[in-house]
Amino acid sequence: MSRTVITFGTFDVFHVGHLRVIERAAALGDRLVVGVSADALNMRKKGREPVFSQAERLAIVAALKPVDEVFTEESLELKRDYIRQYDADVLVMGDDWQGRFDEFRDVCEVVYLTRTPAISTTALIEKISAGS
Length: 132
Ligand code: CTP
Fold this sequence. Notes:
Strand content: 15-25%
Number of domains: 1
CATH architecture: 3-Layer(aba) Sandwich
Order of helices and strands: EHEHHEHEEH
Radius of gyration: 14 Å
Number of strands: 5
Structural class: alpha/beta
CATH class: Alpha Beta
Number of helices: 5
Distance between the termini: 50 Å
Bound molecules: cytidine-5'-triphosphate
CATH topology: Rossmann fold
Helix content: 25-40%
Strand order of the largest sheet: 3-2-1-4-5
């Protein structure tokens, strides 16, 4: 039986930490679905406009080899609906969210993956802004 994996993120200023989490998520099943945060959701979640628009971020993630399907995540409150809608067997999140999604263990497996060290969109933006 085919196993569907779902994961979520902003994936702004796409970097190798994003690639690694997507590759590792894909390796946990046969089909990978990625929810990419809407611009408005990112604004609420991180308090800043993303550098790349949701259409651009979606296009980048959709073009990755391990990704089978993408959609726009409109609200953090809709995770359970998205899991059902895409018939996901596994929810993968980075361990910055450790424990925060355990409530979904009644509908799917929940796996937290270790973040790639020393890289983040926030750090990249700061580094580029500082010109260093
Ligand atoms: N991620 C990761 N390793 C990193 C950075 C991100 O595994 N070094 C994972 C996150 O855990 C998440 C996904 O990539 O599952 C999308 O994360 P996102 O929040 O979009 O990226 P960040 O670089 O963490 O962004 P920010 O600095 O804005 O919080």
